[in-house]
Amino acid sequence: MQWASWAAFFNMGGYAFYVWFSFGLTALCVVWEVIALRKRNAAALRLSKLLAQE
Amino acid sequence: MNAWLTVLKRDLLLAFRRRSDVATTLFFFLIVSSLFPLGIGPEPAVLSSIAPGVLWVAALLAGMISLTRLFAADFADGSLEQMLLAPQSLALLVTAKTLAHWLVCGLPVVLLAPLIGLQYALPNNALLVLVFSLLLGTPALSLIGAIGAALTLGVRGSGLLVALLVLPLYIPVLIFGAGAVAASQHGMSAQAHLSLLAACSLLALVLAPLATAAALRISVE
Amino acid sequence: MNAWLTVLKRDLLLAFRRRSDVATTLFFFLIVSSLFPLGIGPEPAVLSSIAPGVLWVAALLAGMISLTRLFAADFADGSLEQMLLAPQSLALLVTAKTLAHWLVCGLPVVLLAPLIGLQYALPNNALLVLVFSLLLGTPALSLIGAIGAALTLGVRGSGLLVALLVLPLYIPVLIFGAGAVAASQHGMSAQAHLSLLAACSLLALVLAPLATAAALRISVE
Amino acid sequence: MNINWFKYSSPQTFYPLAGKMIPWFAWLAAILAIAGLYISFAIAPTDFQQGEAYRIIFVHVPAAWMSMVIYIVMACWAGIGLALNARLSAMMAQALAPTGAVFTLIALVTGSLWGKPMWGTWWVWDARLTSELILLFLYLGFIALQASIDDPRKADRAGALLALVGAVNVPIIYFSVKWWSTLHQGSSINMGAAPKMAATMLLGMLIMALAFWMYTIAVALMRVRCIMLERERSADWVKELSLKSASRGKA
Amino acid sequence: MLSAQGLACLRGDRLLFKNVGFELNAGGLLYVLGENGSGKSSLLRMLCGLLTPEEGTVFWLGKKIKQDSENYLSNLSYIGHLNGLKDDLTALENLQIGARLAGNHVNDAEALASLTKIGIARCANLPVRVLSQGQKRRVALAVLWLTKAKLWILDEPFAALDVASVDVLAARLGEHMTNGGMTIITTHQDVLIHAQTTQTLRLSA
Amino acid sequence: MLSAQGLACLRGDRLLFKNVGFELNAGGLLYVLGENGSGKSSLLRMLCGLLTPEEGTVFWLGKKIKQDSENYLSNLSYIGHLNGLKDDLTALENLQIGARLAGNHVNDAEALASLTKIGIARCANLPVRVLSQGQKRRVALAVLWLTKAKLWILDEPFAALDVASVDVLAARLGEHMTNGGMTIITTHQDVLIHAQTTQTLRLSA
Ligand code: HEM
Ligand SMILES: Nc1ncnc2c1ncn2[C@@H]1O[C@H](COP(=O)(O)OP(=O)(O)OP(=O)(O)O)[C@@H](O)[C@H]1O
Ligand SMILES: Nc1ncnc2c1ncn2[C@@H]1O[C@H](COP(=O)(O)OP(=O)(O)OP(=O)(O)O)[C@@H](O)[C@H]1O
Ligand SMILES: [Mg+2]
Ligand SMILES: [Mg+2]
Prior knowledge:
The complex is a heterohexamer, with one copy of chain A (54 residues), two copies of chain B (221 residues), one copy of chain D (251 residues) and two copies of chain E (205 residues). Chain B has 221 residues and is mainly α. Helices cover 87% and strands 0% of the residues of chain B. Chain B has one domain (2-219). Chain D has one domain (21-43, 55-186, 194-231). Mean pLDDT of chain D is 84; it is low at 1-7.
């Protein structure tokens, strides 16, 4: 383990913005994609249920 | 006013139904402005010196290409006739359509422009001026372009006429717009250019809808 | 072969009837390439250094804008259906249409280009290479563009969509074309670039009509 | 053999199968990602030239790899769909495209974020960067084309054709761009000069890449399920399914 | 109420008709007949004010229609060869927007009712794009169950309609005339419409 | 000669029809009837090979039409909802080009004769743009006096035609069948056409 402290870890040797932005953006994309797909799935099911009950 | 809102809402709704169309204008702008470095070479100094011109020309082209469709669909499916028969001032309805067009095609370009400016190594203050100049100038492009779009409708062979009519009118906007950015790049004030741009847009707002309405009546005959 | 000639002749006749359309493409090329000196400033050294890129991009955009009309009218009025039902290979008929398009929209641009090159202070040998590179490269543009035009038939907003599909595919042609001119400007041989351009065009000639024909069949369904 | 293939290539049978596969891939992705992140931040040593900023490599490179691989896979599915008129293949191609575009975007943005501290600029017109940008355009074109065609069958086939045309062009584009920037080569920046990678770095990148792979599969399966539901909304099996899912929700 | 005097129409360099006049009163029906190309559509567009007559004038309540156009247009419902529908909007939305542009507010229930009348309620929430020729025509015609306009000008409303829809539309036209409305219509088909007074205007090419 | 088996058509997510089949022999006439939107036009396009059937096959002389498409197409004349005319060309030019694309050489006199038959010789040298709806349709139909195709597939050929033209066309169709030709036709109008055998295919929405 090469980090002196959590603060050092978060500071990333002065490159915090660049590093955390990169990883954060990636995480955000992943989370957004999964949530969006779940919503889409639910919406599709809801609509076909309406059609089925008609 | 009611019909005005109806037209605005309808056009926005249509744009929303075809969201990909809106995105397409943006991507067109993005792609066209990425083509120039490929043709010219990657030298940042050269790129930054031509950036104002390139970005403004790209914005102008994106606007112009999307404009041709402003009334064409309405003309083809007959809703233009119905608009002409609405018991409202046609010029007013035209402003609604033009506003919708600007919101859908002009505004996104304005917002995307700084990102592309970064690729052209534009400095920060020039980026700001770029956004402002586009914000002030693109409404004029939409308004003037509407006249051309209306004229192209019926008079089929008049493509040249329209280009001749509209592009010269675009040129002042281009010159002031690109000039504003270039001025701020060279450390001068862009104020004068920007006020001229705003004046162009105001003038266009007053005159263009009337001309467009007249052109539409001629085209539909 | 008979049907091939018929299609070619018909398209040329149509272009002749609507001469203004042809003029529009040229005019567009002219305007786009003259806008830059306006946006960028009159410095001959700068202008000549960006000339290859700007002229090639302008040629590319002019070709692309006219592309949307390649099949659209035929689709709307039903003559495309009739072409599909002709007892001939569709890919062959497609080459006839593409050839007509190139003769009408590509060739004039090639011929006009040196004139504009003069305005950009291009030296004589670079002008020659410019014409050659356009002559070798624009057929590829028409051929590749035809695929995009066919794919976007009947799709609203097709003008911009076509740009989005086709411009990325144009990039090699742009790079080799502008590269050829730039090379000759810098006193190097443009041979390598020109042969690559010719290769692009040949490859496109072999593959693109097949893809276009397939795309047309899909679009007409 | 044949029969099996056709059985699983019908949406009705593939839908539940995909549903069963998704958790597996999702968990694999999560585990690999955690391992990868541990290597990237805890094990991999600080780079003596670039400092800590180099850790961006652990998302940047896998994302860049994925962006290219997904395009190839997508084109393959599209080609199969077009040749065999197989609906499922076309749906897979359609399901992959957005994920591919997202990875391309991630590669571009993380690359920029890396470039700013390293090169002092967000963007240079370097061959690799430029071709990545063009790849993004190709994805967007594919997505936009499919989005603007309403008949799904037609959209499938038009998209497939475009993907294939793109696949033929990608190598041409790549080499032309490469050649272009080496000929011009005005800037002093050269990405090839990245430091020799330590074994741990390589391992970290590989594991992250694997995690992205698994994630891609899971997400593509999820998306293909949505597409099936939307397209076959009036088919009986979808109606039954929707009724069942609702009653399960209530219970 | 609507009258025309000495109308002449020039298309290209061909004089389609001249000296056409008529007077149409409440409850009246005017058939405009003639061969293909005799200028029926042109006449109808003239009456709407979409086309400027070469000679002659159209009057509404004794005033020139160009003079008091706002009033005239709010009393007019025109359906031409083209349907005036947006492919990307649903039938319902199209109907509502069309009505609102013409100046009537229409809620969902009213719009749906009119679609039901002409037998395409089933398509109410489909985008018009996916409808067939005749279904589209019916959506365009549904506005006739909503409008409060006195004067209807219809250019071949029966074209592309199937037999059942033709009857429904004819009945609606009869009802309109019974209520004191006026209709001007062109058609190549033989359809019986009840009206208080029926006139025929024959254009010859 | 032309036969179809088990045709099914899927449009969007709606199954328009399935299991449609028929057999049409020399001198035979096939009416395709149905309401608006029942899929008549789609069926006709399928028979031409413009639309791929979801299921089923179309045979010409016992061979799949996709297999021997060149032969099939040179025996086929299709006129759809759209006229396939170029607005900027004259009626005569349109007619000649259309015929030449389909593989017949036609000189001016022949083309003019066929325009005369359908009663628009007067418009022969006008650009199609200025013709009315019905006149355009007639130019498109004039090709039926020129083609040597055995199989005619006509989608609502009578729409927008005036009464006189309807009769002329019906007579021409009768003549074609007498000469051993085959015709497939959709229409909403009642028109009497003479044929050796007449079949009706009714699509229900
Ligand atoms: C917007 C900016 C950038 C983009 C679009 C980009 C794109 C790419 C792509 C497509 C790859 C995969 C290429 C391959 O595997 O052959 C890659 C790999 C890589 N990139 Fe970037 N990059 C960017 C910025 C940077 C920067 C600033 C650096 C470092 C200073 C960098 C370092 C690397 C390294 C070390 C690799 C791995 C090379 C290899 O595996 O051979 N990139 N990048
Ligand atoms: N925009 C135009 N420019 C020039 N001429 C036109 C134009 N529109 C129509 N015409 C001419 O006017 C004539 C009448 O056209 P119109 O559409 O009024 O006929 P119509 O009686 O409605 O025929 P149809 O029964 O076929 O609909 C046509 O012969 C055509 O040549
Ligand atoms: N390109 C298309 N995409 C999706 N759906 C379509 C398309 N074309 C037609 N349809 C649908 O197919 C149905 C049948 O259309 P078609 O044109 O075959 O009907 P039709 O029987 O010819 O009707 P009409 O008598 O009105 O001409 C329509 O209801 C329409 O919704
Ligand atoms: Mg008419
Ligand atoms: Mg039909």
